[in-house]
Design a protein that fits this description.
single chain, alpha+beta, six-stranded antiparallel β-sheet, four-stranded antiparallel β-sheet, 3 helices, 12 strands, globular
Length: about 180
């Protein structure tokens, strides 16, 4: 919220900055509803998960980074957000430009519909860019797993990310 928050067309304000809110347990969606109702811009990356309960398939939206909601607000909006009693900690973002770039790439990867795996810690690897396909232009780190090559798109600030299976021929190294 708003839908153009991560677009280049979104109007930046000098009084607003990025915050990472670490929520109380399982409060990410509730906090996002509260932020929406008071008009505070935020981004909560969600992925669809399908589980089977009592022979029924249930599709749910799960947060990519459990416990985190990214807020673009002023100090007053931060205080209003804390009044929801759903926030455990507020983390200042030291490099907001890099965070926004990481979140834009993450949103594009989620929008592609590719099956994602959440990665908890970034490991050093080769920096690459995707050359072909619907994800062309995305940059990340190559991970090698038993199941094959995966591309890690990380949010450096949190030292977390998501990975997607990808063929080696689609990648080019970044120097």
């Amino acid at each position: 919220f708003p839908s153009d928050l991560l677009d280049d067309t979104f109007q930046e304000f000098d009084s607003r900055r990025w915050w990472a809110f670490y929520t109380k347990s399982r409060q990410e969606k509730s906090l996002s509803r509260d932020l929406f109702s008071i008009g505070v811009p935020f981004y909560l990356p969600l992925v669809t998960s399908t589980k089977v309960y009592r022979h029924r398939r249930v599709r749910t939206q799960l947060p990519v980074f459990g416990g985190y909601v990214f807020v673009f607000g002023s100090d007053d909006e931060r205080v209003e957000s804390l009044k929801t009693n759903r926030v455990s900690r507020v983390l200042e973002v030291p490099d907001p430009i890099r965070l926004k770039l990481d979140l834009c790439q993450l949103r594009r990867l989620i929008d592609s519909g590719a099956p994602l795996t959440v990665e908890s810690r970034l490991v050093p690897g080769d920096q690459v860019r995707i050359r072909h396909g619907s994800l062309a232009g995305l940059e990340g780190v190559v991970l090698h797993r038993r199941s094959g090559t995966r591309l890690l798109i990380g949010v450096d600030f949190l030292q977390r990310g998501v990975s997607v299976a990808i063929d080696d021929y689609m990648l080019e190294p970044i120097f």
